[in-house]
Design brief:
Radius of gyration: 19 Å
Distance between the termini: 40 Å
Protein name: Bifunctional oligoribonuclease/PAP phosphatase NrnA
CATH architecture of the largest domain: Alpha-Beta Complex
Pfam family, one: DHH
CATH superfamily of the largest domain: inorganic pyrophosphatase (n-terminal core)
Number of strands: 12
Helix content: 25-40%
Organism: Breznakiella homolactica
CATH class of the largest domain: Alpha Beta
Number of helices: 11
Largest sheet: 6 strands, parallel
Shape: globular
Structural class: alpha/beta
InterPro entries: DDH_dom, DHH_sf, DHHA1_dom, Oligoribo/pAp-PDE_c-di-AMP_PDE
GO molecular function: nucleic acid binding
Length: about 325
């Protein structure tokens, strides 16, 4: 599978790199490291994303290494370029880039570690056994025998830490640690990255956690935990919806909880539903039913209906998966 990506990289000269809407540390880190690799082997590469990086990830992004897309930036794109989409296999999950950039590139390749979206028409290097897309790109860097810049190592190490839950999630393997060692040897310092990623949130984020945790409800004989974040919670605390990223993992500390749900309402845009599982329920399949995706144990989707209807819809699927009707 990796050979497909290696052949693609060797064949073309100019690359546009992008990741999914609302980019996370894994997508951002994979882009940054791959750009470094491409430039080291004499290629041209630009990173253009459907949206700016969330504030909490700004520390991992080298200055002027990427930009958020709008039509005025078209002149910054290389001519006769190919595109590599990282950390998603869904061309409908890259925002305006899907309509305004994708149709103008010569070829497209996916590099992703999520379960393949069955509706996607794109091909590429998809490995759902990998812990993260950063892990996959680190292996590509090793194949090309390039010297990784410290800034790229920091970015990719951050992506691995983020997507593995600090090397704790089920897909963490010896392969993951090999990639981490490669990046640490290139200059990534684990304790500094952990501090910036997990110990640098605002007081507003702490107050938001208090409010969201107060909504905790246990359903399906105590096997399913539900938390709700409403727009007014953001207004009152001054936090952002990105500050709630980790809240969904809190209920999983209980041995009785099999599935955790976090439904988030933002000031703008659709309701978002995040799903986590300890393994007995494949939440990726549930998310795909609602045009989302992810992993068997971690997935999500956007919903065009309100919080209550979204919860009712997703609970029907979860109860069916748990054998409850």
């Amino acid at each position: 599978m990796m050979q497909k990506a290696l052949d693609f990289i060797k064949k073309y000269k100019s690359f546009i790199l992008t990741t999914h809407d609302n980019p996370d540390a894994d997508g951002l880190g994979a882009e940054i490291l791959l750009k470094d690799v491409l430039e080291k082997i004499g290629k041209q590469a630009v990173i253009v994303n459907p949206a700016p990086a969330p504030e909490r990830f700004k520390f991992m992004i080298p200055k002027k290494s990427m930009f958020a897309w709008d039509e005025s930036k078209r002149k910054q794109l290389p001519e006769k370029a190919v595109m590599i989409i990282l950390d998603t296999s869904d061309e409908f999950n890259i925002g305006k880039i899907s309509d305004e950039v994708l149709p103008f590139v010569e070829k497209v390749l996916i590099i992703d570690h999520h379960e393949l979206n069955p509706l996607s028409s794109l091909d590429g290097y998809v490995d759902s056994t990998a812990s993260s897309t950063c892990e996959m790109v680190a292996e590509i860097a090793e194949k090309f025998k390039v010297t990784i810049e410290k800034s790229s190592a920091v970015a990719a190490f951050t992506g691995i830490v983020y997507d593995t839950g600090s090397f704790a999630y089920a897909k963490t393997s010896a392969r993951t640690f090999k990639a981490a060692i490669l990046l640490a040897e290139a200059g990534a310092v684990p304790n500094i990255i952990y501090e910036k990623l997990y110990e640098s949130s605002s007081t507003g984020a702490l107050l938001l956690q208090q409010r969201v945790l107060s909504t905790l409800e246990l359903l399906t004989d105590g096997q399913v935990a539900v938390q709700i974040l409403r727009k007014e919670d953001l207004t009152i605390t001054g936090a952002t919806v990105d500050d709630a990223e980790s809240f969904i993992n809190i209920p999983l500390k209980s041995r009785d909880i099999k599935v955790s749900i976090l439904i988030k309402e933002n000031h703008q845009g659709p309701v978002r539903c995040s799903l986590r599982s300890k393994g007995s329920v494949n939440v990726s399949k549930i998310a795909q039913f609602f045009n989302g995706g992810g992993h068997a144990r971690a997935a999500g989707f956007r919903s065009d209906v309100g919080i209550e209807e979204t919860l009712n819809n997703v609970m029907q699927k979860i109860n069916a998966a748990l054998g409850k009707t």
